[in-house]
Design a protein that fits this description.
This protein folds into four domains: 3-49, no CATH class; 53-172 and 427-449, no CATH class; 177-422, Class I glutamine amidotransferase (GATase) domain (Rossmann fold); 454-640, no CATH class. 49% of the residues lie in helices and 17% in strands. It has 16 helices and 24 strands. It has helices at 3-32, 38-49, 67-86, 129-143, 188-198, 211-216, 237-242, 244-258, 268-273, 286-289, 409-422, 437-446, 462-495, 500-543, 547-588, 594-640; strands at residues 53-54, 56-59, 92-94, 98-104, 107-116, 121-124, 159-161, 165-171, 177-181, 203-207, 222-225, 262-266, 276-277, 304-307, 311-312, 317-320, 334-336, 340-341, 345-349, 354-360, 369-376, 379-384, 427-431, 435-436. The strands form five sheets. The protein has a nine-stranded mixed β-sheet, with helices on both faces. The chain has an eight-stranded antiparallel β-sheet with strand order 5-4-7-2-6-3-8-23, with no helix packed on it.
């Protein structure tokens, strides 16, 4: 759109408004003089009806033939929605297909009736200037160009609402995630990868023994249980009663969900959420109907009974049964993907459970539920029998060859579940507040290109950037040493007449999953943090007189220093652990039982280093997410408060 055209339209509209105001003033005078004003009122109404109005924005539930491009747009729309929600701006999620009168943002004068599928997002105007200006600024950054983002190739599709509408849908909440984890869990890195790629930046981790305290003392609204549980219910119920920890943890989770928190579980977490596991006796379903009742062996927040699952690493086919459920918005009729790592086979569901999808074409799982949801008290529960979160080519561990499915369903399923589990109940919404189109266009135009504001950079994160660079060197050395240790194990194995195929088969999991991949994840988040704080240094000259900005900046610097300092300590400890492993290898070099001890050695490598990488991993996403939230918040304030042309 051309600035000159917009300016001309703006000036003409302002003239009309001034004329209306002048006419209104004249009407008061003529009324005092007893002059008939009907004709003037009629002309005034004509002028008002000629002023184009807009009621907000709508972002469609996109579908393209190019699935890679669709995936990029999908992720970007979620980033935009989450930015709006963090600014406490209302966003609604439609639950049915609608035909709406809209216009494209780059051609606002041409209106058309378009079909928007369920799962589209609507952001209405509020009538409050600063709020509406911020809405326009955020939407413009994603549709046009964002001066603070690195990857800005794909533009989000945005339409102007040109009519008042009413619709059924969900009011979305700012998603605040707590990710359950322990040293034997799996899947947490995949969930946080989905969150990272889709802009869910309120993300924290909780270890098993901290669960009850953290749930009670926080404002999180979503608990993710990504997989394996260190504590697992046993037939010895009497012992479980004696053990107070499982009871306290289960009580805390049940209270959290029943009071309105969301719960998402994958694979073995579906066991924990069930009311029973065969062949053990199933708990009565009354536990799922009355949230205040205690639960010991299982969480019992979903009225399902499960049987033992299998380790199934192939692509599992699933058929969507409830196409109107929000978890499958934008997903095709069939799902391909998801594997089980001792995940459950759901053999019974209660009346309150909504079966979203079933497994198909598998001899063991065929016809059994793969995705279910239910309410527990005031909260929502979504359970995935398989690990559906990894079903994207660009999500999850690169070593997992099962994660190369081209359907891009993983992020859709999981982010849909994020929104659904934390949303308000579905109801009718009415959009009636409007803004003159000229107000929107002028606000849009002023934020289209602000790169000229970022032509200066002030070094305010020198120490943190130095620590990050040192961490890069430490990670590179660690990865190199890990490779050397793996090669040494191969060499010793050959000396002991162990086949290379057998050695590599046993080494692959330990060497590539728990070690190098985890360190590479930490490196990736460190790189993103470094890039983000450099952009903060560019907006610093604009806000250096803002006392609130400076105060929050100092707090951010302090928090990053603490987290990166801890990561450096963890990397140092990991280096020492590797030295210990080398000593162990030399001890067993000429040992005749090396074949039997090899597995123990590999487990030693995995366990010792995994503990360190898990500790580092839980620190780094939070540091990056905090810096990115800080940057976006203050940049949007800059854009909002810019003067109009």
């Amino acid at each position: 759109m051309k600035k000159n055209n917009l300016l001309t339209k703006s000036i003409s509209t302002i003239i009309i408004i001034l004329f209306i105001l002048q006419t209104s003033s004249s009407l008061c005078i003529t009324a005092e003089l007893g002059i008939d004003s009907e004709k003037i009122n009629f002309e005034d109404e004509i002028l008002l009806t000629q002023l184009p109005l807009c009621y907000g924005f709508i972002f469609p539930n996109v579908k393209y033939e190019n699935k890679y491009f669709e995936n990029q747009i999908y992720c970007k729309i979620r980033h935009m929605v989450n930015d709006l929600l963090r600014e406490e701006i209302h966003v609604f999620w439609t639950s049915s297909n609608m035909t709406i009168n809209v216009s494209k943002i780059n051609n606002s004068e041409i209106e058309e009736n378009l079909l928007f599928e369920k799962g589209s997002f609507i952001v209405p105007f509020t009538g409050v200037d600063l709020v509406d200006l911020k809405i326009i600024a955020i939407v413009c950054d994603y549709n046009q160009s964002s001066e603070i983002e690195q990857n800005n190739n794909a533009k989000t599709p945005v339409y102007l609402l040109k009519e008042q509408i009413s619709f059924d849908g969900y009011g979305l909440s700012n998603v605040k995630i707590l990710n359950f984890m322990n040293f034997l869990s799996c899947g947490e890195s995949w969930y946080v990868d989905v969150a990272f790629k889709c802009g869910f930046l309120n993300y924290d981790f909780v270890y098993n023994d901290e669960t009850s305290k953290k749930l009670e003392d926080s404002d999180y609204n979503l608990l993710i249980w990504p997989g394996y549980d260190l504590y697992y219910p046993s037939p010895f119920v009497a012992l479980e009663i004696i053990l107070d920890f499982p009871t306290r943890r289960n009580r805390a989770v049940r209270d959290f969900v029943s009071e309105g928190g969301g719960f998402i579980g994958s694979c073995q977490a579906a066991y924990m959420a069930a009311r029973g596991i065969k062949p053990l006796p199933a708990y009565p379903s009354i536990l799922t109907q009355y949230p205040n009742l205690p639960s010991i062996g299982l969480l019992s927040i979903s009225d399902i009974v499960t049987a033992n699952g299998l380790v199934i690493s192939k692509d599992l086919e699933q058929e969507i049964l409830d196409k109107n459920h929000p978890v499958v918005y934008g997903v095709d009729h069939y799902l391909t993907g998801g594997f089980l790592l001792h995940g459950p086979k759901i053999i019974k569901t209660g009346e309150s459970v909504n079966v979203i999808a079933n497994f198909k074409n598998d001899s063991y799982l065929d016809g059994t539920p793969s995705i279910v949801s239910n309410n527990f008290g005031y909260g929502k529960v979504v359970l995935f029998s398989p690990h559906s979160e990894i079903r994207d080519p660009d999500t999850g561990p690169k070593f997992w060859n099962g994660g190369t499915s081209g359907t891009y369903n993983g992020k859709k399923l999981i982010t849909n579940a994020f929104y659904f589990a934390t949303s308000q109940d579905k109801k009718e919404h009415v959009i009636s507040e409007s803004r003159p189109l000229v107000f929107i266009m002028d606000s849009w135009n002023k934020t289209t290109d602000l790169s000229y504001l970022l032509n200066e950079q002030v070094e305010i994160f020198e120490e943190i950037k130095t620590c990050i660079n040192e961490s890069f060197e430490d990670i590179a050395n660690l990865n190199n040493n890990i490779y050397l240790i793996l090669e040494k194990i191969i060499q010793i194995g050959i000396e002991q007449n162990i086949s290379l195929k057998e050695i590599k088969k046993n080494l692959y999991y330990a060497g590539h999953i728990y070690l190098i991949y985890c360190f590479d994840l930490v490196k990736e988040y460190l790189e993103n943090t470094s890039s983000t704080i450099q952009t903060i240094e560019k907006i610093y000259p604009i806000l250096e007189e803002d006392t609130i900005f400076i105060k929050q900046l100092e707090q951010l610097k302090f928090n990053l220093s603490i987290k990166i300092g801890k990561i450096q300590e963890i990397l140092s400890t990991s280096a020492k652990k590797l030295q210990d492993i080398e000593t162990i290898l030399e001890t067993y070099r000429k040992h005749q039982l090396f074949r039997k001890t090899m597995e123990k050695i590999i487990k030693k490598i995995s366990h010792d280093i995994e503990i360190q990488t898990e500790l580092a991993f839980q620190l780094m996403p939070g540091g990056y997410f905090d810096s990115l939230k800080f940057l976006r918040y203050h940049w949007y304030n800059i854009e909002t408060n810019l003067p109009m042309y």
